Amino acid sequence: MNKPIIIVVLVSLFALLYQAAFLSSLPEQVILFLYLLSPFLLILMVYIVLKNGKPSAHSFDERFYDDWDYQRNGREDIHG
Q1: Are residues 31 and 22 in contact, defined by beta-carbon separation less than 8 angstroms?
Q2: In terms of pTM, does the model score above 0.70?
Q3: Mean confidence (pLDDT) of the chain
Q4: Other CB atoms closer than 10 Å to residue 76's CB: what's the count?
Q5: CA–CA distance, 25 with 64 (Å, rounded to integer)
């Protein structure tokens, strides 16, 4: 079971539900409950993703996009 993916999907669906609650005829108490619950779900999601994540084998100076095989060539200096 890939727990981080499930948590990310569920919290994202919760965020969509919260946004849709304003357009629907849900009672204000329900919207307030969703609002008060959202920071806890977000913190839980961040904790689980960081806890179960795998560190990169490359440093930022070697490869700043870890999901793309791009080697830095030194011309990316934005300060000069």
Answers
A1: yes
A2: no
A3: 82
A4: 8
A5: 46
